[in-house]
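We modelled the chain as a single entity of 64 amino acids. Its sequence is:
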Amino acid sequence: MRLLTAMVMVMLIGSTVAQAAEPPRIEVGKAFPAISLPALEDGSPMSIRDFRGEKVVLHVFASW
């Protein structure tokens, strides 16, 4: 369930960043920007930093 929550959170991050006027810069070798979104289970805040040291799949897509 935690992996599913992480995957959905990453997808939401992608859509949130895409809508931002100036998205945070992501640079190779630097830490990922601190982003928090509600968890699927109970809506409590969940940060991408909660997954530090774990593998996270970032699925980026677009439909033109």
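As a brief sanity check on the tokenised model: The chain has one domain: 1-17+34-64. The first strand starts at residue 36 and ends at 38.
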